[in-house]
Fold each of these.
Amino acid sequence: MAECFIYDAVRTPRGKGRKRDGSLADATPLRLTDAVLGAIRERTGIDTAEIDDVILGCVEPVGEQGANIGRLAALNAGYDESVPGFQINRFCSSGLEAVNLGAAKVKAGDADLIVGGGVESMSRIAMGAAGGAWSTDPQIAIDTHFVPQGIGADLIATMYGYSRRDVDAFAVESQRRAKAAWDGGYFAKSIVPVKDVVGVTMLDHDEHMRPDTTVESLGELAPSFKKMGESFGFDAVAIQRYPEVEKIEHVHHAGNSSGIVDGASAVLVGSAEAGERLGLKPRARVVTSVSIGSEPCIMLTGPAPSAKKALARAKMSVSDIDLFEINEAFASVCLLFMEQMGIGHDKTNVNGGAIAFGHPLGATGGMLVGTMVDELERRGLGTALITLCVGAGMGTTTIIERV
Amino acid sequence: MSIIEYKVEDACAILTWNDAGRPMNVLTGDALAELSAGVERAVADDAVKGIILTSGRDGVFVAGGDLEQIEKMGSGPIDAEEMLRRTGAVLAQLRRMETCGKPIVAALNGVTLGGGFELALACHHRILVDAPYAKVGLPEAGMGLMPGAGGTQRLPRLIGVQGALGLILEGKQLRPDQALEKGLVDEVVPAAELIPAAKKWIAEAGEDAAVQPWDRKGFKVPGGGPESPTFAQTFMGSNAMIHASTYGNFPHAKAILSAVYEGLALPIDRAGKVETRYFITLMQGPVARNMLRTLFFSMQSAQKGARRPKGFDRFEVRKLGVLGAGLMGAGVAYAAANAKLDVVLLDRDQAAADKGKQYSETRLQKQLARGRMTEEKVAEVLGRIHPTTRYEDLAGCDVVVEAVFEDRGVKATVTKQAYAQLGPDAIFGTNTSGLPISELAEASPRPESFIGMHFFSPVERMQLVEVIRGKQTSDETLAKTYDFLRKIKKVPIVVNDARNFYTSRVFGTYITQGFSMLLEGVKPALIENAGKTSGMPMPPLSLADEVGLDLMVHAGDQLRKDLGDEYDPGVNAPILDALVRERGRHGRKNGKGFYAYDDGGKRLWSGLGELFPVRDTQPDPAEVERRYVFAQCVETARAIEDGVIESVEDCDVGAILGWGFAPFTGGPCSYMDTFGIAAFVAEADRLADKYGKGYFEPPKLLRTMAAEGKTFY
């Protein structure tokens, strides 16, 4: 089978996902995709007609993100009309899955060059806007013990004994690392500013960060899912699935969960031949990628099993991986991943994560690929494992190797 | 026409439903056919402007569907296609009514429940009589069923999804004022004005009076239909709340939610079929059939005295004596006074007796505050209770209920003193949950008139009374007991005299399983949660805390005294010794038991793990549930084999009403039947090998039944 290389990876800065003061709230989703798709074209200098497909992840594909934003993004960015596009949804790992899907096409020999990534304007299209049967249709909601994911995160903390202080300390460290990475200019290579219709920059930095966060300041925040869990039956539903739990400890809040933000990402993957032909320098290769299903009620335990499956497919072991990147959906998810993989925080999320930057649902996976390619290069390391927990009980993992 | 009478008055066709062949008007195919014919006749008659649908039965419009037919159907295989077709025809008839072009008003003269209310929903206007006996609603959920004649579709379209879901899922029966407030009916009028009001509405009816809201242009479901975010939120919340409260044990709850969820997205013509499909799923499963049999038919027949000895005239009870004005005595007095009996409430000192009467007053005042009772009625009920210390006041009592402390000596003393005042026809019931009746009867000069009446607390809410025949109790006394209990609206089951009778004996095995697993190293949270999911109303360790761990110690001591060498301390002793004797943890009463209690609620006591170390490997929750259910079922079968209880119906009714045994099973005997007796025996043997023959070894009765292919029902 052919190899698939990563030739470029870009992302927008992440803007607060609020209409009131989010710097990207007045950018349509297409303006966000214009920024990253445009950057791929300009940075590589390729003729876009060379691109076989544009695959974009998006979790709320309705309204102005609806009706196949993959194709519309390619058209709006001025790509050649011969470039098709489509949108996929594997919830929070959509952006990574888009890259994986592109890589799989390349490896299979069905494509030479593909842009994979994602977009989510959470300020304009609210979380949950796409509806869905899971929470509402009694047949599946009851049979699968549906509870909102925050309850699942709190359930993980309860079952694995992560205290409020543990999760808060993780969050503080995420903020500290994020600040250090920005101060060190580690992201400079990959962030493309979003510009408005008259060419003025709307945002050029991640604006959700709160570097002055301390464990003490987080300690003042009220848990976010306590009322929902205790007053609307969700805790009881989760406990019926996990009857060894007496009571769910609600430890997560806005400060130790991923922020709601706007953003887009794009990763250019392709075959060795395409790179040579177009004079592109490969930065990393996609070693393998997998997605798995896990128990849906607790929902967020997919990363470790997906990572283990990916390692097994690649005939690698945990010690073969230099850097781990797990999406910081909730602090407990990361703590559990590190515990189950037997790895330390020193190798994991070395430049912070979504607790500091925010998590633009469909776009995040593509962003994490870029972050890891940059960091492998900066540190001169070899391999990275990127993983995300996924709604409805799934996990997606991609292993890359710097070349 | 034999069921529906047709007449025309003041340009109104009046269709009067009077099914003389049945105790009540119920929705049957015959009745519907006549109703349809009546509607068509009225439609064809140019002199008729509108139609009034009412009933000729006193206080009853239509009481519901034909439950006998449903129960019969549930016992055999269901032909789903045939049932879809048949129900489809019923739905079409109702649909034809609401689209016939002439306004139809339902003049509801009383009870309008289930199918009766679904019929009313297919009318264009509903007027309800303002009377205390008038009840409106869709109570099917109470029997594991769901509305099947369009109720899940029309009610949400009429009053909104959230309101309708609440009423249907809880099976609520509303009084006239509530029905009006919630929009189930349009008018509430005095009985004499019912037909005049209906005629008036027709006379004043405009062009669109014959058009249902959901047939009007631009119709929107009140509060939001499937297109609105509220709809999604309502279902997200309802799914969780219903799941949380039913533990997924009641298929009808999910079926109701799904019928509304899926049906609301469709035009009403097609929505009914969605409801029918889910209704059929309930008929195909065992839950509805078992619940219906036990909680409707068996309970009704127990109440009506199916096991009342024949040949004795009805015993008129006018005056009741209650000995002991504690919680139980006060509760019996309250129930009896509400049933218009004069009650002598006797205790050792006047203050205690007065306090017993206070019990009634507190509850009556609550009723008054909620508008469910008038000042006069409160005074009247209270006026019937006479607190006293004088045994002479018992003179003229037809029945005496003794509810003093569970102590043989005290019981004997009060029994003798009471009998001295009673006439030869009076009977004497002793309220005990376990003391042998025949021994207690020794204090009676007329042991044939002495009987056990095991009430449950709180008496005004718990319908069951376990009636215990002593060795010398006469048939006549048993018959009188039935008449007395019927008068105070209780449901009796009859058992024979043996230690702990039936209910306490079987129920005890549930707590014992919880204790046993604690000693085995099962996580306390799992012990508790699996108790809830198994269908029991309270987890075993919580229950023990509520009962009082010190009381359990006391009961054990008593038993040790009674049984001597035969006494087996079992699993209770090590647990209770550690908690009560060594650490003073008495349960909820002193804030320390299996749980630690504070103002914020209760949490399992953190010291439990040290006393009862938790095993590394924990059992599957389903296995824990099974132990609870099987232990109780096996003990039930043993009680039957021992001759403690004779009627299978009484077993099931007593289990559900007495201690809340998983109601969706229909009771332990229904559960064993549904599980399959041979399969049950095999499974019980497996559990016996693994966890102890004492708990699970199936009695010979079950083995024989399995061998002969017999079932309880």
Note: Chain A has 15 helices and twelve strands.
Amino acid sequence: MTDYSTVDFESLVALAGDDEVVTHSYVRDVPLPSGRTLALLTLDNGRDHTRPSTLGAATLLEYATTLDRLRARAAAGEIHAVAVTGKPFILAAGADLSKVAEIPDKETAKKFVQLGHHALGRLSTVGVPSFVFYNGLALGGGLEIGLHADYRTVDASVPALALPEVFLGLVPGWGGATILPNLIGIENALKVVIENPLKQNRTLTAKDALDLGIADVIFPSVNFLEDSIRWADAVISGDIAVSRPNAPGRIERLVKWDAAIGIAIKTLKRRIGPVPQAPYAALELMRAAKGGTRAEGFQREDEVLADLIAGDQLQASVYAFNLVQKRTKRPAGAPDADVAKKVTKVGVIGAGYMATQLALLFVRRLRVPVVITDIDQARVDTSVARIRDEIDALLGKGRVSPDEANRLKALVTGTTDKADFADCDWVIEAVFEELEIKQDVFAEIERIVSAETVLATNTSSLSVEQIGAKLAHPERLVGFHFFTPVAVMPLIEVVRTPHTDDATLSTAMVTARNLKKNAVITADTPGFVVNRVLAKLLGEAMYAVDNGTPFAVVDQAIAPLGLPMPPSQLLDLVGLKVGAHVLDTHHAAFPDRFYRSENLHRLADHGALLDKDDAGRVKGFDKGAMKILSGGTTPLGADEILVRLQDGLADEVRRMLDDGVVAAPEDIDLCMILGAGFPFQMGGVTPYLDRVGASERVFGDTFHHPPVRGVGD
Amino acid sequence: MFVDGVRTPFGRAGDKGMYWNTRADDLVVKAIVGVLERNPGVPRDRIDDVAIAATTQTGDQGLTIGRTAAILAGLPKTVPGFAIDRMCAGAMTSAAMMAGSIGYGMYDLAIAGGVEHMGHHPMGSGVDPNPRFLSEKLVGEDALVMGATAERIHDRFPQLTRERSDRYALASQQKTAAAYEAGKIQQDLVPVAVRTEQGWGLATRDEVMRPETTLEGLAALKTPFRPHGRITAGNASGLNDGATAAILASGDAVKEFGLAPKMTLVSFAFAGVDPEIMGIGPIPATEKALRKAGLTIDDIDLFEMNEAFAVQVLSFLDHYGIDDEDPRVNPWGGAIAVGHPLASSGVRLMNQLASQFTERPDVRFGITSMCVGLGQGGTMIWENPNYDKKAAKRARR
């Protein structure tokens, strides 16, 4: 086994330089009611809660030295217990991800992982009972600090505890993968390590942590530290016996363990495919954690985590994470929020499915009057009734209070008289995707609303500028493109026409934020970002299919990207008719580069591509569909399809950037992650295109300098 | 009836004090949670009111602190609360007003307490006295400086020398040290987690005690209120942070919930004196309270006097012909040793009297009394439910 105390970790500190915000380990002795003494170690980086304590090299070394000192004091009989807690609201947020991404080589990566084991493991060898008081946020390494303790308490108000590593291309490799399943059972551990991170990075509440068995006891926030200290005293005095009903027994190890891992792998393959490395690596570590010693487990963690840190997927994931966490907060090209106009009443034109979803979102998030209009009173009534039903459903689930439900329902009204839009400051249309209808609707509305009112269109395929062609004031028109389902998808493409003024654009950006969506500003070009990239993807897929490549081969050829679903399922999801339409419009705009598929229209008429069981699960391809697609005579090989796709995407994205569709490749990636669920391990799309060489092949350069890729061996 | 009371350890005010990074409202919340935790039989939803005193009702002592503290302590939102102020006698006034409401049959259960974070709210911060006080000589110019009012007691009663004050102060330190040694004070303290630059710690003891005090040391201290005066930092209470909370209950509630009250209220009174000599306030207040109780000073076997200043306690003792070292007076020491976070102190006196009642079945009546700024005094007379005639007889022998 690795003797961590013989490793020279100082080089890691030197490497970090002055860059690390060091989380210090402060110790104060606390007298216990029993007369014993508890050494209370506080992790505190000296900043407020907006900068959570993180675990860098200097931090870990200081923590290790502090625990060494406490071990000596314990041996001398000066202290009878050690407890670790954090500054207000934070225990620790784990390793500083940006620093992990800067690790220069695999050897350093391994050393850094070893340092984590060296430091965190110290708590279990301190020589007296050890406790961690989870007083606040505990993520990744922060949660793992506690796993090395003998006992854990948790503050009922802790907002999040989690091991999000696999979401970020890592594994919980500072003891998490090894200790957790042995503490709370394999199935619970799978939930924490695999399931939650892959469900939009879901975190645990304090109560969850208690129920799973991560925490031994929960205390209300009001007296959390005092209660934890008293509880610790009772534990070491023997007055309280801690039971761990979830800890795995012999039967679980013999029977359940491997089966649970097997099921998890199967589920994972179905849900995210085989491309992301981290979740599978975590599963293998957890499988191995069934037996052997902790030290053996830690050594396995060292190897696996060092590989991942040095690999491409981690770099792409960190890049993607930063886009989602940081770039979304300061959208590129957004005018000053101060110039935004106030939105105190919203008008929605149209009463169809999309319009209804939009109205519901606006009323829920903005809590201002929302008036819906359509030519047909019955459609309006249905739409309003549907929104009110949705609000009642939220009430039923306890998501809104009765007062709030009343408030929201009262805010939604319907009308067929557009004069009711007179005092709206924001009008959004979601009528048929037909240019003339949209032009006329806005021209009519403009005569009713004030000169200040912002007009927004949810068009996905028309030119926003042309939609405003009949407006007296086209500067107040902006594209506001949602993705379905509106309530779930986090992206809005905010489309700026050559006329759109700053006040309008700013209003759109602020409104998007108030709707709790992330907005990316795009130029008024066909398909904006997401649809254009997807059209390229689907076009390439259909090109191969139409030339006689079996659809299954096409799906398989594109699988190495690790997209959330193969092209066949994507077509099925967006609808064959919509898919065909999207290809048509892009082909019309860029006939040289976008493929349109006559077969897809036939498929749409036929009505099905996939064969599904009653639960909607895909069993295979529809036989009729296969017959329609069987005419091709020059099938492509899988490699050929993949390279064509990669090169096609690199070319198209390059053009989009050259044409100023968005400010930077980061914005393309952000759109693809948020709007199409492109995976973190791809970094959206441009880091992937760089690392597979497509950028180099197509335009002799890379999108990123340096490219977003791992340091390798 | 006084069911039970607790307090936080008292800290030294200012940035070197242990509560510098602790909010005042959090202190009183810890006290409320602490006293409720000790009394699981008290149904939270039956508490009729939460009266919390603070002298400076702004910042972390503002926002109707009784109500905010009730919410922060996790009491049901149906439980109301309010803020109250009579400077040093804040918590005593909370208790008296709650007791009055209980006595009139309006309340069954109430929480009374007080808090003063004199570090966050230095004495006199934000005050804006009406100019008429001085222009019309409504009060003497010393009235707002408590140390100066204490010097005036020395002026009025020349037999109260600095030496007597110092001797009394020394005894207070020694008695407190002995009571700590015997674990008597700690029983009514709730520990408070405190954030410091060295990480979290736990406050379990009063911060300002000076058991090492000597007469010589006291004699050498400066007299900040007057050149060659008599009042020093040694024979006065200091500037402190702390909070108290007590549960009061009606006789019916005691029966209904099977509570074991530690004291029964006999009477209370507040009285006014010249503001520039506020320290003698306890005398008329006690006169009044005794008269209402139909008792005389000879019926009182235990005195818990707030030691704002030694001389102010001595003036009281002289008035009643009680010896400076009478063992009935502050047997566990007082504010000179443990501190006096203004509006919180009243309930501290009650806590200590109550705990003495528990171990002294020979004692029937005790008083808690204190002087109050702007010339007031407050006294509450309590009866010991553990009183046992035989024990009293034995004690007399």
Note: The mean pLDDT of chain B is 97.
